[in-house]
């Protein structure tokens, strides 16, 4: 199949920023990917904003082939029940450890930031729930990465983020953090969640199975205290990989987004709810 014949459309349905009139912004991410007329929802934001924005974007959630959750944080999974009640029962994909309790701890304040639904409640509204730590195809040509090996020395644990293993609260290694990959003849379109695994780790992992990276879309976790070293090493790697489109969303932060825009010029389109891209 020639590239020009393969149509991939991406619609940002939830982001920290909102674009067109009446779209809602919130701290969260949800991106719809449409490949040859079949659509898959990647993350659900944190509230009903995803359903509101989908309606404004003319997206029929009832036609989804399935839904994937990148990792077990409320800002990616909180809208799940709203999505399933709008779409009807759909297949759901995520890593089994996404269901662990997760916390942000700052000083004396411990805040629950995990998926705000019990497993049996999730199962009751989905057509099926596939919990897999391995790569899995979610619809033709679209797959979850599975667990991402950590190979860089500048991406890793975050001091304030924890998960609960049995009775013990430990620093979160984010083994549950996955990305979505659309394979095209011109390379992989990679949709990240928060990129807690590290964007460079994720792209290196995808490059093991795909010859090149065509586009990178989603959260990059370069905001909220990411070191200058991490930001510049990530941008250097992006320069080497040279995707034709970079869409920094959600937890990328203003600083890294501006650095990307200055460096990669019109190959960067900052994400916002309501953004529609044809790739
Ligand atoms: Fe997260
Ligand atoms: Fe996030």
Describe the model.
The protein has helices at 49-56, 74-77, 80-87, 119-125, 199-209, 228-241, 253-264; strands spanning 8-14, 30-35, 38-42, 64-68, 91-94, 102-106, 109-112, 128-131, 136-139, 142-144, 161-165, 168-171, 180-184, 187-191, 213-219, 245-249, 276-278. The chain has seven helices and 17 strands. The protein has a single domain (7-278), classed as Metallo-beta-lactamase, Chain A (4-Layer Sandwich). The strands form three sheets. A seven-stranded mixed β-sheet has the order 8-5-4-3-2-1-17. Strands 9-10-13-14-15-16 form a six-stranded mixed β-sheet. The model has no long low-confidence stretch (mean pLDDT 96). It has 279 residues and is α/β, with parallel strands linked by helices. The protein binds fe (ii) ion (2 copies). Residues 29, 73, 75-76, 194, 219, 250-251 line the site of one fe (ii) ion.
Produce the secondary structure layout:
Blueprint: E1 8-14, E2 30-35, E3 38-42, H1 49-56, E4 64-68, H2 74-77, H3 80-87, E5 91-94, E6 102-106, E7 109-112, H4 119-125, E8 128-131, E9 136-139, E10 142-144, E11 161-165, E12 168-171, E13 180-184, E14 187-191, H5 199-209, E15 213-219, H6 228-241, E16 245-249, H7 253-264, E17 276-278
Parallel strand pairs: 3-4, 4-5, 5-8, 14-15, 15-16
Antiparallel strand pairs: 1-2, 1-17, 2-3, 6-7, 6-11, 9-10, 10-13, 11-12, 13-14
The structure holds fe (ii) ion (2 copies).
One fe (ii) ion is lined by residues 71, 73, 194, 196.
């Amino acid at each position: 199949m020639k590239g020009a014949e393969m149509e991939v459309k991406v619609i940002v349905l939830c982001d920290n920023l909102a674009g067109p009139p009446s779209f809602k912004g919130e701290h969260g991410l949800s991106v719809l990917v449409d490949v040859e007329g079949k659509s898959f929802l990647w993350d659900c934001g944190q509230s009903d904003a995803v359903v509101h924005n989908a309606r404004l974007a003319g997206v029929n959630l009832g036609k989804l082939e399935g839904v994937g959750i990148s990792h077990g944080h409320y800002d990616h999974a909180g809208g799940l029940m709203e999505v399933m009640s709008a779409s009807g029962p759909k297949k759901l994909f995520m890593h089994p450890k996404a269901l662990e309790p997760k916390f942000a701890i700052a000083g004396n304040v411990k805040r629950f930031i995990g998926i705000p639904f019990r497993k049996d409640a999730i199962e009751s509204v989905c057509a099926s729930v596939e919990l897999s730590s391995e790569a899995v195809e979610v619809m033709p040509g679209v797959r979850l990465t599975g667990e991402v090996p950590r190979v860089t020395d500048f991406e890793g644990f975050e001091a304030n983020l924890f998960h609960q293993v049995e009775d013990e609260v430990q620093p979160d290694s984010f083994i549950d953090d996955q990305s979505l990959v659309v394979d095209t003849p011109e390379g992989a379109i990679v949709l990240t969640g928060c990129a807690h695994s590290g964007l460079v780790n994720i792209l290196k992992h995808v490059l093991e199975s795909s010859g090149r990276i065509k586009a990178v879309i989603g959260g990059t976790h370069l905001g909220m205290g990411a070191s200058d070293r991490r930001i510049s090493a990530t941008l250097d790697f992006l320069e080497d990989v040279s995707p034709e489109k970079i869409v920094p969303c959600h937890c990328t932060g203003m600083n890294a987004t501006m650095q990307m825009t200055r460096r990669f010029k019109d190959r960067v389109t900052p994400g916002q709810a309501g953004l529609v891209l044809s790739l």
